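re: that chain from earlier
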Amino acid sequence: MAAIKLTAKRQATFPVEVCNELGVTSGDTLELLPLRHNNQKVWVLKPAVKSKSAWIGSLSKYATKARKPWTREEQGDLAGRALAGESGK
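^ sequence. v structure.
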């Protein structure tokens, strides 16, 4: 059985075997879930589900349609044409 000792600031270091079993690394968040087992209150550790932002990767479909990377000059030229009301083609 693995043991964890708390520091004066209530910080703990988990044994590497526990971290490997949970699949967590430095910076990850663990959830503590209170449960009842044999009429005793126990706490269960569970890796927190990492939220995935909906916008991450949402523009990748447009990147595949790009003909080539734009230069800063091309971007400025297109913006200037748009402001002037020109078609840009």
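The beta strands are 30-37, 40-47.
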